[in-house]
């Protein structure tokens, strides 16, 4: 049942002048599935994520979301479909508070007669709630983001993505700038989001993270998809590294809809 994919991108190409960042990539994602997107620097991972988040337009190719053709011409269109993105640099505004960042562009308002006012207290209340749910230690929702640690900023970005009950979250190296402890916390948040049935695309260079967090691994090399394998089928991360370096030419399985209920949670790396 190919129509049961949440997202299906076909033959995606992207050129920047003479640089072919993506050279005909097929990518699919099921509801609730977590895909690790890996590859060397310059392989085209961020370009693919930017296309799926509406931040960049492909040179050619088609994208189906929920069985319908979509033109992800900007990030608002993607967001309206339930696609949320957390970038390495997080895209937060440092001069705004935690709550303001979480609600940026989607502020809650209340109407009093002819006046429209920001429902500030309600935004702070809900922001605090979602942060608490994610077991995140952010001092106050009224604190400016500028004063937060990398891990806390990451938490705010994840809370922002979470508040809107996304169907799909794209994470481009979410822990690249974090310390060990902060990475662990951020990964706990991702695990929670994943457990709620949100589909996740996770770009990371950490093989332990790939093996632990993903249902499937997609490997990019020089603008092409060279690997697409269920994580449970991998005996170890070595197989992924071989695909990344080119020691293994290709390993692409036929796309099959993923079922989160059947997720293998333990013993996949044995
Ligand atoms: N805005 C851009 N302008 C020109 N070239 C770009 C741009 N963005 C990415 N590229 C090029 O596209 C290729 C893929 O980059 P990218 O998707 O960022 O790779 P990755 O995220 O896997 O490191 C690289 O050669 C990179 O230099
Ligand atoms: Mg990148």
From TrEMBL:
Keyword annotations: ATP-binding, Cell inner membrane, Cell membrane, Membrane, Nucleotide-binding, Repeat, Sugar transport, Transport
UniProt-listed Gene3D superfamilies: P-loop containing nucleotide triphosphate hydrolases
Pfam hit, one: ABC_tran
Domain ABC transporter residues, every copy: 7-247
Gene Ontology MF terms in the entry: ATP binding; ATP hydrolysis activity
Protein name: ABC transporter ATP-binding protein
PANTHER family: CARBOHYDRATE TRANSPORT ATP-BINDING PROTEIN MG119-RELATED, SUGAR ABC TRANSPORTER ATP-BINDING PROTEIN
InterPro entries per record: AAA+_ATPase, ABC_carbohydrate_import_ATPase, ABC_transporter-like_ATP-bd, P-loop_NTPase
């Amino acid at each position: 049942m190919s129509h049961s994919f949440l997202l299906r991108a076909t033959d995606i190409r992207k050129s920047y002048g003479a640089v072919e960042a993506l050279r005909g990539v097929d990518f699919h994602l099921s509801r609730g599935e977590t895909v690790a997107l890996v590859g060397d620097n310059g392989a085209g991972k961020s370009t693919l994520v930017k296309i799926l988040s509406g931040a960049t337009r492909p040179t050619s190719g088609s994208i189906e979301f929920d069985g319908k053709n979509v033109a992800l011409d900007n990030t608002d269109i993607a967001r309206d479909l339930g696609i949320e993105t957390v970038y390495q640099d997080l895209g937060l505004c440092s001069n705004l508070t935690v709550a303001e960042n979480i609600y940026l562009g989607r502020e809650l308002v209340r109407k009093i007669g002819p006046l429209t006012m920001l429902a500030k207290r309600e935004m702070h209340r809900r922001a605090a709630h979602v942060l608490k749910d994610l077991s995140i230690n952010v001092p106050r929702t009224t604190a400016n983001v500028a004063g937060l640690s990398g891990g806390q900023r990451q938490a705010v970005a994840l809370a922002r993505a979470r508040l809107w009950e996304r169907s799909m979250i794209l994470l481009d190296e979410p822990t690249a700038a974090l310390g060990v402890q902060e990475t662990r916390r951020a990964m706990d948040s991702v695990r929670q989001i994943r457990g709620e049935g949100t589909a996740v695309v996770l770009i990371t260079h950490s093989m332990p993270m790939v093996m632990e967090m993903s249902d499937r691994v997609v490997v990019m090399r020089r603008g092409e998809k060279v690997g697409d394998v269920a994580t449970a089928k991998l005996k170890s991360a070595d197989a992924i590294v071989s695909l990344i370096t080119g020691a293994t030419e290709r390993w692409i399985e036929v796309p099959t809809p993923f079922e989160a209920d059947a997720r293998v949670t333990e013993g996949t790396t044995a």
